[in-house]
Every structure is written in structure tokens, then in C-alpha cells.
Amino acid sequence: MSVAADVPDILSPEFEENPYATYRAMHERVPMLWHERMEKFVISRYEDVARACKDPAFTTDNYAWQLAPAHGGRILPQMNGREHSIRRALVAPAFRGNDLKHKFLPVIERTSRNLIDAFRHTGRAELVGDVTHQLPIKIIVDILGLDPSNYQRFQRWYLSLTDFLGNLSQDPAVTAQGLATAEEFAAYMIPVVRERRENPGDDLLSTLCAAEVEGTQMSDQDIKSFVSLLLGAGGETTDKALAGLFKNLLEHPDQLEAVRADRTLVEKALVETLRYSPPVHMLMRVAAEDIELSAGVVPAGSTVILLLAAANRDPARFADPDRFDIFRDDLPTETAFSAAAQHLAFSLGRHFCVGAMLAKAELETAANQLLDAMPGVHLEPGFTPVEKGVFTRGPVALPVRFQVG
Fold first, then answer.
1. Which stretch is the leader sequence (predicted)?
2. Is 401 helix (H, G, I), strand (E, B) or coil?
């Protein structure tokens, strides 16, 4: 056990500039520490973080204050036991199988193609602003059957929700904006849900309205909160994962060309990105009882910050963990988008990201279309990519040039 003074403070500018150096220091010296200012434990070892993701003794009670207020009510991640299993069963089928293949994939392909069409004949692009930041929200709005003219409002709401989630320092302005977003979003969404119940269509919102498991259906409030969660969680992870994928490949041209030549490697590159530079760097859990981890004992009632990104770079779990290598043999792709994944980017166990397969479809589709549209792609000469973010993290910009015609 140690205090935060032994390594850079995770609320400090030094940490945000390069969290990976802090993760290395934690692995070497303080795999579990007590953060005085936040009054939370912080853990970084793979075995401890993986256990905290899966063990029911680590509850998601933290979401009652960390997430639910900005979503205007109880949300799936904060539920446990039968309540969680029923609610998850109501929404999960819409994100896999035939719905994903026949309803959502055409939307993903069309949206990605339309964004790329805006620059494919110019020989240059800024991948974050032109593609990754827009793609997931446009797709979510479309598959829900919502009015695309409100896209900018959805983009603003999504950013506010993301800021609320990652508000580790409890900035009152961020909190106030998140609560205002919850009210604004409810005023927009509840009437839309009620109208869709009366006039269902062939869209995700209609599917959620009609879903039933063991006699239970989702209320208008349930659906509104889930859509809000989908905007925040689905938008942020896909945006930063796609940007991170191309940052990693552009910084490793030999692997970029290997992926271009053999598209079966796109999945490997994506999974290695989820390990090496995941979009979500940390989660929180609350200990329901005294829990002994490899790095020490977490007392009952304690809030614990799980450093997913640090665990993904634990040298006790992955060989040469600070090296981006799509050919590594200690990270299987077969289970990478399931609750049995070896990386921790989507958590593990019962709270594994319900939209992981949708994210996979978005990321692989966009990656392949971008590779097709940008032969010879490389970073703008003299440009060095910079990542930002603490709770979630990704490249700020990726200006590129490529061959045309």
C-alpha cells in the first residue's frame, strides 16, 4: 500500500501527458495506492483489475453518482443480479446476429462511405474531425430512427455525458452541464419514445419499445436512459478506438502495410489497439466486503479505480507490453469481443460492454473503407500525434496525406 505521492497523481497534467509512464511506475513500485484527494483506491495489476471486473463482490454502486444523474435515471451498468440480467436480455439481442447484419451493417457502411466521400479525392484528411468524431453518433442516430437534422444536438449531448463520466476532480461546471443535459435529453427523447410506441418502425428504438423478457418490458424512462447511455458510451469508445487504431498503424508503417495487404489482419490490429491504447482507461467499482487482492486488501465500502489501460500493459500478463505489435501471440482475437476477452478495454464478465459487437462492426467497416480510400497514407509531414484524456483517451488530431486516382 502507498499514497499517491509515490507516483504522478492521476489528476495531474504530468499524468495526462503520459499516463503510460505512470502505469509502468505503478507496476514496478505501487500496484495499489490510496488517493487522498479522491478518497479512492487505485489498482493497476492485470490479475487484480480483471478480478474486480468479474467478481460480484466489486459492485457497480458507484454509477449511482458517477453516471446515473447525467442519464436521468437508473442505467444498465449500475444494475446487478436479476435486475441486470433481465435488462441486459432486453437490449442485447438488438446488437448481434441478424439485426446487426441486416439492419445495422448497411447503415454503418453507408455512413462511413459518406464521410470518406467528402475527402477521398482531395489527397488529405484530418481523420479525427472528418471521420472518427462523427461516425459513431451518426450511426447511432440513424439506427435508432431519430431525426438526423438533430445530429449537432446529439453530438453536444454525447460530449457532455462523456465529460460527466470522467469528472474525477468533480468540477462543478462539468457536473452542472451534465445535469442540464439530462433534462434537455429527456425533454427531447420521452415524446419520441411515446410516439414510436404508437407508430413502430424497423429501427432500434422500435425494437427496444417492443422487447420483452419474462413478462418485463422497458419503460419510457428505461429506454430514454439506455439511449442516453448508448450515445455516451457507444460514441466515445468507437470514436477513440478508431482514431487510436490509425494512430498506431501510422506510427508503425510496416504494420500498416501488412494490414493493407492482408485485411484479415484488421481484426488483429484492432484488438492490439484495444490492449495498447484503449479508449477507456479506467472504471470504478465499490467493494461490498473486505477483499484481498494481490496488491493488498480493499476495505468494505471503498471505491476502487480500476486502471484498465495499466492492466493491459502489465508485463506479468503481456510480453513487451509497451510495444504495439499486431502479430503478438499472447492476445487471441477469437474471444476479443466477448466477456472472455484477454484485453480489458470493454471490461469483463457480466458487465462486459453490451455493444461490443456493434463497435467491432463499425471499427472494421470504417478501417477497411479508409484503407481502400487512402493508398500510401501517411501523417502530415512534421506532425506528431498527441493523445488527451484521463478517464477516456485518444488522439486529438490525425492529419494525413494519401495518393489520389
1. none
2. strand
Beta strands in 37-171, from DSSP E residues, in sequence order: 40-43, 58-59, 124-126
Give the angle 382-386-391 at the CA atoms, nearest 5°: 175
Nearest Cα neighbor of 310 from 224, 390, 383, 197 is 390
DSSP 8-state secondary structure symbol assigned to residue 299 = P
Question: Is the confidence at residue 25, as pLDDT, over 70?
Answer: yes
The number of distinct structural domains making up the chain is 1
Beta bridge partners of 399: 126
Closest CA to 346 of 265, 263, 270: 270
Rounded Cα distance, 274 and 294, in Å: 24
Tell me whether residue 400 is in a domain.
Answer: no
Q: Which residues pair with 306 in a beta bridge?
A: 43, 283
Mean pLDDT of the region 382-405: 95
- Cell reading at 204: 432500434
In a domain, 55, yes or no: yes
The whole domain housing 30 covers 4-395
Query: ∠385-361-255 over CA atoms, to 5°?
Result: 45
Q: At what angle do helices 235-250 and 253-261 cross, to 10 degrees?
A: 110
pLDDT, tens digit, 9 for 90 and up, residues 57-93:
999 888 888 777 877 777 777 777 777 777 777 777 7
Distant-in-sequence, close-in-space partners of 154: CB < 8 Å, separation ≥ 6: 137, 140, 141, 146, 231
Spatial CA neighbour of 156 closest among 180, 172, 173: 180
State yes or no: pLDDT of 321 exceeds 70. Answer: yes
* CATH (domain of 317): 1.10.630.10
Grid cell of 360 as nine digits: 467491432
Average pLDDT score over residue span 233-239: 88
Confidence (pLDDT) at 3: 52
Give, in order, the Cα–Cα distances in Å from 113 to each of 117, 120, 376, 377. Answer: 6, 10, 19, 17
pTM (two decimals) = 0.93
- 24 domain residue, yes or no: yes
Q: Is residue 402 one of the residues assigned to a domain?
A: no
C-beta separation of 205 from 144 below 8 A: yes
